[in-house]
Q: What sequence folds into this?
């Protein structure tokens, strides 16, 4: 079964709740969203969001009387990250949790490495050294990921 891709989100992605990527819907950017709205935005069922709440300590929606969940913009942005990692990048929940924890301690989410292009035949030593450095960085990141 191929997971459904999450709908496109508008807005600039930043670490703050006010500037985080938010859904392009009729609500104000800082409005709370209920679990059904967020589930539709991400293309998952509501029970998945409830399970993710138990697996990711940083995910704590506001719960009002009757146990109704309301997600803040920061919660929606975090859920989008989790969804992308799990459904888009193939992370397990444990792997996504480790990645988010590491990003929180480093202060920023690790950016993907640019694709390395082979220097043309006869290229100078500087281009070959840059390629070699990029490959070593990739090797080190893969080793850390396997050890983590």
A:
């Amino acid at each position: 079964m191929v997971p459904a891709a999450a709908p496109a989100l508008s807005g600039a992605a930043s670490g703050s709740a006010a500037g985080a990527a938010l859904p392009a819907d009729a609500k104000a950017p800082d409005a709370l969203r209920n679990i059904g709205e967020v589930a539709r935005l991400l293309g998952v069922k509501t029970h998945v969001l409830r399970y993710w709440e138990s697996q990711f300590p940083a995910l704590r929606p506001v719960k009002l009387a009757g146990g109704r969940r309301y997600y803040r913009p920061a919660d929606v942005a975090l859920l989008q990250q989790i969804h992308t990692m799990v459904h888009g990048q193939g992370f397990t929940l444990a792997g996504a949790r480790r990645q988010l924890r590491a990003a929180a301690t480093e202060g920023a989410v690790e950016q993907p490495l640019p694709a390395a292009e082979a220097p043309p035949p006869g290229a100078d030593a500087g281009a070959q050294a840059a390629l070699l450095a990029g490959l070593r960085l990739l090797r080190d990141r893969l080793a850390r990921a396997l050890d983590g």
User: Anything to note?
Assistant: Confidence is low (pLDDT under 50) at residues 1-22. Residues 9-106 form a domain with the Multidrug-efflux Transporter Regulator; Chain: A; Domain 2 fold (CATH 1.10.1660.10).
